[in-house]
Amino acid sequence: FPNPASGLLKIKINNEIITNIQITDVTGKTVLKKTCNKSEVALDVSSYNTGIYFLRCFVNNKSLCKKIIIK
Fold this sequence. Notes:
Blueprint: E1 8-12, E2 18-25, E3 30-38, E4 40-44, E5 51-59, E6 62-70
């Protein structure tokens, strides 16, 4: 996925099934919580304010976290 992102954020993790996605801002406020059950997910982040967010993906009962920048 592009990072920094401004439109679509595409997420794919080694062809694993992503069960849930959560995006939080730097204050810890959840701005998106989504159940997906797909191996590739595209999120529209064009309406998000510019800044730093944290993307948490849940795969195989594990949680992966990545810092993303929205511009």
